[in-house]
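Lab notebook, bench 4. Still working through the backlog of constructs that have no structural model yet. Next entry is a single chain of 155 residues. Request: give me the structure tokens for it.
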Amino acid sequence: DFESGSLSGWNSWQGTTVSASAAHAGGYGAHLKGDGGWGGMLDQTITVEPGKTYDLSLWYKVNANGVNIQIFDGEANIGGGWKQDKEWTELALRFVPTSDPIKINFCGGGNKIAEDLYVDDVSIVKYVPVMGIINGVLCTSVIPLLINFIYSMYT
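Model written out:
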């Protein structure tokens, strides 16, 4: 996330800034300025445990035809892709990396088009399933816990 008001922990190129006007929630977000060339770029390398499940969540919007959001596991692009949403949109991805580290990459602009990309609320966390017991059966999910809680209130 960019709440410190800086790009600390991120690699940035060509006009990428942090500003209040780029925020989805909180005080600051990243603005990757499209300049008609390649535009702004932003990436971060993240240490993960291969074979474990992770959840990536971020919010983005673009001001023109589209931008590229990529998540690399080694050399393979495992998610993201070409995005064209002009309103704030959440990108949520559950993935299992096969190598360590992974890289998340944002590109604003490209192909000689001036496109701006706004990114905020970036989070990658290890997925931990929640377990509950319903009528003696072990279930993994939040829903069984809610059902078990509601059931216990009325019995």
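Notes after review: The helical segments are 142-153. The radius of gyration is 19 Å. Flag for follow-up if needed.
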